[in-house]
Design a protein that fits this description.
single chain, mainly alpha, 10 helices, about 80% helix
Length: about 200
């Protein structure tokens, strides 16, 4: 789908470009057949061509991402497992999988929502699981919103930093997206735990 949208997006300028980007990212959040990381990287590349500016893009992207996640979270919060009677959700999240994800959410608590933002392929299902557990909405906006504030500048300015090589990097990420992003998250968590234990050892 992105292959057909990409040429059209490059032809836009200003408000229409931002509006389409909001729709694309919001759609990714509610289960559209697109990878939001690829969409974000492509959008960041367009800042190199002057189609969009970095800061407005990040602002629009934040509302698109968190808005889509919030809607899925709301569906889970309001309808719970009754959603699985609908073909779309039953295909996306089988009941056994939803129960497993609910167990994961219960084990790690609401802070796990922060990690979910960096997990491609399962975000929608995990936000649905979090909502079905009746987690407070503030947990979603705090943890998911904070994660998006970290993710967006990293993606946008990483693309701008590599400049003309962004297409090569996009190709690699597209091929290994199920490995690269989780690996980065695990690395960041490992560094955080290392510093925490090291600081605790110094205080003792």
């Amino acid at each position: 789908m992105m292959d057909s949208i990409w040429p059209f997006l490059q032809s836009l300028q200003g408000f229409p470009a931002y509006a389409l980007m909001f729709v694309l990212l919001f759609g990714c959040g509610i289960g559209a057949p697109m990878n939001e990381d690829i969409v974000l990287l492509a959008a960041a590349a367009l800042t190199l061509k002057g189609v969009m500016d970095p800061v407005p893009l990040m602002l629009v992207a934040w509302f698109g991402l968190v808005g889509g996640d919030a809607l899925v979270f709301h569906w889970g919060h309001r309808f719970g497992t009754r959603l699985l009677r609908m073909r779309f959700f039953a295909r996306m999240v089988p009941e056994a999988r939803l129960q497993a994800m609910q167990a994961t959410m219960r084990h790690y608590g609401p802070a796990y929502i922060f990690v979910v933002r960096f997990m491609p392929g399962v975000r929608t299902a995990l936000f649905l699981a979090a909502g079905s557990l009746k987690m407070p909405y503030r947990h979603l906006f705090i943890y998911d919103g904070l994660a998006a504030l970290i993710e967006l500048p990293l993606l946008v300015y990483a693309v701008r930093y590599v400049g003309g090589r962004w297409e090569e990097i996009l190709s690699v990420i597209h091929r290994f997206q199920g490995i690269i992003v989780p690996a980065i998250v695990l690395l960041l968590l490992a560094l955080w735990l290392y510093r925490r234990f090291k600081a605790r050892g110094i205080r003792q």
